[in-house]
Amino acid sequence: MNIIITNSSGLPIFEQIENSIKEAIFSNELKEGEMLPSVRSLANELKISFLTVKRAYDELEKAGFIKTVQGKGSYVSPKNLNLIKEEKLKEIQNYIEKIYEVSKISNISKEEVIELFKMIFEEEI
Amino acid sequence: MNIIITNSSGLPIFEQIENSIKEAIFSNELKEGEMLPSVRSLANELKISFLTVKRAYDELEKAGFIKTVQGKGSYVSPKNLNLIKEEKLKEIQNYIEKIYEVSKISNISKEEVIELFKMIFEEEI
DNA sequence: TATCTGTTATATTCAAATTATAACACTTTA
DNA sequence: TAAAGTGTTATAATTTGAATATAACAGATA
Predict the structure, then answer these.
(1) CA-to-CA distance for A11 and B59, rounded, in angstroms?
(2) SS3 assignment, position B49
(3) What is the pTM of this model?
(4) Does residue A104 have a pLDDT over 60?
(5) B2 pLDDT above the threshold of 90
(6) Considering only residues 99 to 118 of chain B, which have any Cβ-Cβ distance to chain A shorter than 8 Å?
(7) A121 to chain B: nearest residue by CA?
(8) Which region holds residue A114: left if phi is over 0, alpha if psi is between -120 and 50, else beta?
(9) Model confidence at A57, in pLDDT bands (50, 70, 90)?
């Protein structure tokens, strides 16, 4: 799995780990039932404290993405990814609606918004 | 003026004040040349330190929204439409960045986001 | 039993935000 | 001109969240 943590991201480390693992689950790089790296091994790999990894795992469990069993490890939960994706699409739709409102009120053209959109989405390389 | 500060917002107090005042300026509730509450009076009203209010005012001045004169007070600067537009563009940019994060994590393609974007923006044009 | 797993408790470090306090400087006005 | 408003500055302390270090504990499994 490809977990990269940066200090320049603005996000705390435990959230970066959370996001990386969510991505891996959505992309099916981590499959249902698959075991995640142990808190200690991932902590060693990333050269951080295992408590930070544990915190990320705890949040992921609370959100229903993984299930942790003492003595065994953490496993990807069976999940209806389509359902989650629908939720995320709605979330995105809400953001776009807000953008629409702001742009309308401030006399910002659709083209200008598209320009920003391209800038941010094509940073990806 | 209606300044509400919450601890649940995640934003530091000085930023919440900044945002409230920007809103008031955008909505013309605070008009050009109008005097803002003094740092001490607003601090008393919100039951916070005047230094926190000062920090908010300092940032607003740095951004060009108000002008502070020692011994007199802080005043709303003459409206600069470009400044306001820049501010709104920043707001939109923040939304797009959030969309980018959500879509990346949830494996939602750029095309799907564009689709939503078109739907919402072409509804009323 | 050894060695993996996760869990818990305690204390510490660190940075950013916020506060408390006191003194100082400028403006207005009674 | 003195008083009472403004803002300014400096210093130290506190608070909070994130992250760490360490040690001890508990369950799973070969």
Answers:
(1) 23
(2) coil
(3) 0.85
(4) yes
(5) no
(6) 99-108, 110, 112-113, 116-117
(7) B100
(8) alpha
(9) very high
